[in-house]
Amino acid sequence: MAQVMRIVWGKIKPGAWTEYKTAYQECCQIAGRIDGLEGRWLVRDQSDEDAAYSVTIWRDMDALNTYAESDLVKNTLFPMLDPYYVGKYVSNVSTIEHQEVH
């Protein structure tokens, strides 16, 4: 099975970046170590300070699906972040075809 990357882009309420970032970090602490998660980044758009990307690398699609469909995500983590989004939210999953880490 191939590694996968999930990139989530969301528009954040104007002026709420600091609170959103804090909530994101709290979610990471609550989730703890997640089976199959190999890396996670929260990225702020340089051209739109109210836009965020969450980039995650997963061992395989099964690991991502298990996490995404978990009660933890549905009942705890997503409700913590959802109030910060203004209705624009896109999630894409891609297979990693080549990787270099420097």
Keywords:
102 residues, alpha+beta, Alpha-Beta Plaits, 3 helices, 4 strands, globular
Walk me through the structure:
The protein has 102 residues and is an alpha+beta fold. It has a single domain, classed as Alpha-Beta Plaits, CATH 3.30.70. The protein is built from three helices and four strands. It has helices at residues 17-31, 61-68, 71-81; strands at residues 4-12, 37-44, 51-58, 85-95. Strands 2-3-1-4 form a four-stranded antiparallel sheet. Helix 1 packs antiparallel against helix 3. The two termini are 24 Å apart. The relative contact order is 0.31.
Percent of residues in helices comes to 25-40%
Strand content: 35-45%
Describe the strand arrangement of the main beta sheet, using strand numbers. 2-3-1-4
- Number of DSSP helices? 3
Radius of gyration: 14 Å
CATH topology: Alpha-Beta Plaits
Number of domains: 1
Give the rounded overall mean pLDDT. Answer: 96
Overall 3D shape: globular
Task: Name the helix and strand elements from N-terminus to C-terminus, one letter apiece.
Answer: EHEEHHE
Q: Do you know the CATH architecture?
A: 2-Layer Sandwich
Q: What structural category arises from helix and sheet content?
A: alpha+beta
Number of strands: 4
